[in-house]
Design brief:
alpha+beta, 88 residues, four-stranded mixed β-sheet
């Protein structure tokens, strides 16, 4: 990831749970900024959607921090997982 992406998508898995999808994008006129957890995509896979203000940077550090706060996770381990686009 670069230091300021317009959109980011990936997968995460909490211990003992199925893979989930995270998407993040800048608001671009959307009024509801923040984290929506428990989002269910058409495929049935769940995850979270993060909408940030237009002037915010979308990068790995920011997303991991927001995910940690939302999910109560203090440490992440990066592994090779499934393709998020295929899961959605």
């Amino acid at each position: 990831m670069s230091e300021d992406m317009a959109f980011a998508e990936g997968c995460y898995r909490l211990q003992g749970e199925d893979w989930q999808v995270i998407t993040a994008h800048k608001a671009k006129g959307i009024k509801l900024i923040g984290v929506r957890n428990g989002v269910r995509w058409d495929s049935g896979v769940t995850g979270m959607n993060i909408v940030l203000p237009d002037d915010a940077n979308i990068n790995a550090a920011k997303l991991l921090k927001m995910m940690s706060e939302t999910l109560g996770v203090s440490e992440w381990v990066e592994v090779r997982g499934p393709d998020s686009m295929m899961l959605r």
